Amino acid sequence: MLKNDTVQTIRDKALWMRRRAFRMVHEAQLGHPGGDFSAIDIIATLYFGVMRFDPAKPDLEGRDRFIMSKGHATGALYTALCAAGYYPEDWLSTYMQPNSKLNGHPNRNYLPGVETNTGPLGHGMPVALGIAIAGQISGSDHRTFVLTGDGELQEGSNWEAAMTAGHRKLENLTLIVDRNRLQQGMGTEETNGLDPLDDKFRAFGWEAVMVDGHDVGGLLDILSEPRTGKSKPLCVIANTVKGKGVSFMENKASWHHGVPNAEQFAIAMEELV
Predict the structure, then answer these.
(1) pTM for the whole thing?
(2) Domains and CATH numbers, the chain
(3) Measuring CA to CA, how many Å separate 45 from each of 213, 218, 221, 271?
């Protein structure tokens, strides 16, 4: 497929994911739509432009692995897995309902395509590290991608994993930071400053690049570039907007876990076209 066609496919999938995720949150009156919307373009690019996987064989040995470390943003992950063919759309209507497979945090025991349970922040990166080390030892050519929130990087386990990944030269590991600069209640730099984030990762032995996290063409170029021979893990700092695509949500910390009323839902559906 030509790049322009792939980019259009990703954009179409991302729009569908935003609309469907917001409906899920509205119906459940639970969720984290701000973080869903900052991450959706990244996740859509991975699933519909970069990663190798087969939804009919979710445990395929040679598949690329994706770890959703910011596990509270399940609206983004569940809609991606659905659009990729892992399960039917009617499952999305059960989001956070009693006995639903679609919990507030992803659970690999319930859903195909979920590599590991996440939610407690700082857990996904160490798991991704272990998967990448296993791939390095076995000589597998699969890649491991992990998405963290920027506020999540306040967890020390991420930096222990980053130090080990740099030491082991894990070129098969790619970390993407959803850099929306907001966490629950306030900005990340007010809470515990991260900048200069790229230099911090370089100091740990990583290649670090910055990209507009909503430019799917730019994301596609960076994330699909072969890593063989790089001898370094890759950190992609994706500058994003919390609540991207809905005017009253954008850059508002209150939408970290805000839920829409009927009027807000209608406005968002008009804007998400």
Answers:
(1) 0.97
(2) 3-271 (3.40.50.970)
(3) 10, 10, 10, 22
